[in-house]
Write a sequence for this structure.
């Protein structure tokens, strides 16, 4: 397994009093069982503030370079900024950087999908481009928070395909948005209040290509701590053949103890 990029500590961990949560998590990325190189990159944060999974698009070449640019730019985001505007602007800046790198001699087109999450004011502020996903588990019920930017998701939205068929569809890997793929990138965003006991998961499509939502939920509900949760999901993906790189980040919200 590949070690994540770790965001340098920028102050004390997020911490509030009473019944509001503090956050801690872990992340792992793995080349999978088929690919020769890992073009995913993940960003973890010892202060519990900022997390990201980026999936470089190998079909365009230099996918690892694109995902590295995305996570390197996200690591620069300051804790005190307004989360959603700052994350959106950071991904737009990464888009320009990847476009510039793509235009260099011998490089060619490259891109990266991404999901990033910044914890601020007891909320998860999430931005994404492509098919990296964010999930929330609360009281044993898991909900997918993001909405894939893919050809098959468009088919589901149009009523042509059932939602439970999209991950196994032969065109499930075709994305309609990626950072660095077009001159301008459209970034979706949402903010979700988080309470003690919640568990959040970020992942690349290498995980969801192997495990359905129920299998992911079973691990998310029963794991004792974030690192073990990530290891279990990676191992389960490998057991199913892991044809792509697999990256996961788990963040737990726990009640602050006075």
């Amino acid at each position: 397994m590949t070690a994540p990029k770790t965001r340098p500590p920028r102050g004390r961990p997020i911490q509030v009093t009473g019944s509001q949560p503090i956050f801690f998590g872990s992340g792992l990325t793995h080349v999978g069982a088929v690919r020769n190189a890992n073009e995913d990159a993940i960003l973890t944060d010892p202060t519990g503030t900022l997390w990201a999974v980026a999936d470089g698009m190998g079909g365009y070449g230099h996918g690892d370079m694109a995902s590295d640019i995305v996570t390197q730019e996200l690591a620069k985001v300051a804790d005190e900024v307004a989360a959603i505007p700052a994350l959106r602007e950071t991904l737009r800046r990464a888009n320009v950087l990847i476009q510039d790198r793509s235009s260099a001699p011998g490089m060619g087109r490259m891109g990266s999908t991404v999901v990033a999450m910044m914890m601020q004011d007891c909320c998860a502020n999430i931005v994404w481009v492509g098919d990296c996903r964010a999930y929330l588990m609360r009281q044993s019920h898991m909900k997918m928070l993001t909405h894939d930017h893919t050809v098959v998701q468009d088919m589901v939205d149009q009523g042509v395909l059932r939602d439970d068929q999209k991950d196994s569809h032969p065109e499930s890997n075709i994305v309609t948005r990626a950072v660095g793929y077009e001159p301008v990138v459209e970034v979706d965003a949402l903010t979700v209040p988080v309470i003690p006991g919640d568990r959040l998961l970020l992942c690349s499509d290498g995980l969801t290509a192997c495990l359905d939502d129920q299998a992911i939920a079973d691990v998310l509900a029963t794991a004792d701590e974030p690192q073990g949760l990530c290891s279990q999901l990676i191992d389960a993906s490998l057991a199913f053949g892991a044809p792509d790189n697999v990256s996961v980040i788990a963040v737990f919200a726990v009640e602050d103890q006075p």
